[in-house]
Amino acid sequence: MATPIVQCENVRKTYQMGAVSVAALRGVSFDIHAGDYVSIMGPSGCGKSTLLNLLACLDRPSEGHYRLGGDDVSQLDDDALSAIRGKRLGFIFQSYNLIQQLTVLENIEVPLYYQGRSESECRALAIELAGRVGLAERIDHRPFELSGGQQQRVAIARALVNDPLVILADEPTGNLDSTSGEEILKIFTNLNRNGKTLILVTHDSGIARHCSRTIRLRDGEIESDVHQ
Amino acid sequence: MSTSNQPNPGLLVRSLYGLDVARLRRTMRLGLKTLWMHRLRSLLTVLGIVFGVCSVIAMLAIGEGASYEAQEQIAKLGSQNIILTSVKPSEDQKISQSGRTSFVLEYGLTYRDLDRLRHTIPGITIVVPSRVIRDYIWNISRRVDCEINGTVPWYPEMRNHRVATGRFFTMTDMDTRASVCVLGAETVPMLFPLDAPLGRDVRVGPDYYRVIGVMESRGKVAQPDTSTGAAKPAAYQIFIPLETAKTRYGEVLIKRRTGSLEAEIVQLHEVTVRVADRDRVLAVADAVKELLEHHHKKKDYEVVVPLELLRQAERTKQIFNIVLGSIAAISLLVGGIGIMNIMLATVTERTREIGIRRALGAKRRDILTQFLIESVILSGTGGLLGVILGVAIPVLVSYFAGMKTIVTFWSPMLAFSISALVGIVFGLYPAQRAATMDPVEALRHE
Question: Which of A99, B56, B84, B316 has a CB 3.0–4.6 Å from the CB of B271, allowing a cystine?
């Protein structure tokens, strides 16, 4: 079997809250392979967000190792983590997190911009991606002129534009009505069919059913890891 | 959460290091776009800089113009000259000196003073004595209230007052007490509105004088702040040989007023002393003052040293520039604080954007550059607007108020670069704050 894309090895994260230290993750280990569609579930306070931040390279584990695409990124410095985020990860947030003053096209271009790609290259890729999520007609619109579903599709295009190893989605349908939510999930399924690796953080078991694997967390530990 | 909000001194250096031109251009475009979205706010933010820069350039231009005019006027008096003028003593001095108010008032510089100066003070090359008599000058039926200057042939050279047409009178004219005159430029149109004055005659009292020349226009002349003897400074001037004046008018001047007669005896109204060595002007001036003080019981003369005036004007200008510089510094400081204030607000307001950008691969220095560029755009635009206004205002002032203004090349340059620098200095802290935000926290920010 090929090397897993994501390897977590006894990952621990402890926060110092004044005099008390709070262990948010107490030794989490799992692998995710290319083409997996994983949901991470659990009640609030179980360490979901902490795990997501670590997987997203926004934070570093206190202990343990996190390998992304074979490279240990657990102790990289800030600049290196930024570069990893820009090249290997795609992000989809619950509240879309589009930049309000930019157009649809410019929002999609942002990850490429920080990789220092040429302007024409960025433009071409962004237009292609906008077309793929069905927003070819709206590339010059601003986020506030779009519906929630459309905004989330822009976010998906943005997450795909840098051709990431893993797409991380944090409650991607949380702010959407069920129709738009279904639509987004359909896009995810299609992406997965085309070989994309997705990690989806949710508390909605209905959404988790779309996934091929579900990791449940409780109190900073893995409670169950089920392949469907 | 383990945040790293410590200021990072190496960040700026690394930011500049990692910049390339294409990226800089895109970041600038982004900054312009963002600022344009908040047009009113941006405009209000830069107003401080605009007014600071504009007022400094305008005031400098007006000050420069005024000091240029002053120096020009002083230069006309001649920087190597010492000008002595007779001054009518004040009323109380008149009484205290003679015990009673005399009918005939005698005061001022004398021919003996002239001799003493010539013989006791070394380094004096030429002495221009002149008498000033005030009377009407006639051309048939045209009349002008004129200042009649009895002076010597070298007056034009000494006082930087050239002959425009014709010639000045010569030593021969002096010796023969010729009845010739040279008209001041302002006098000509009053007496000869239609034809050329050269070769014509003008009448003063019973005497006729042939016009042999016309002087150049002096423009405004810096008059020492005194009324020169009997005559007030008049714009209309006529020059006749000193010897002629002496013969014609004697030393007693009689002024007829309604119901009274007043007579004054003034031998010389004005004496110009030229010092050969420019470095010694001030020393000679002191010697002259001492000499006159010794021989005049009353203070009935005045010594004007143009070089001293020039020095004073330069000092005044220096002080003016220092004051202006401080005002500029203060206004740019205030403008800079305004920018910093708004940038801090902007950074807080855009915390989420910062988080998103960081998540999508922006390094700290990318964020730093982005906000720094925005503040530099703000201050640079302010500086540019200020320069435009600051150059336009002096032009308008010159046009409407008739004041001379000089916009020096360096003042807009300096003002603009300093305002851009203000953008960097005052934008640095907010940008630093944006750059060192923890991305996790920033993303969570509502």
Answer: B84
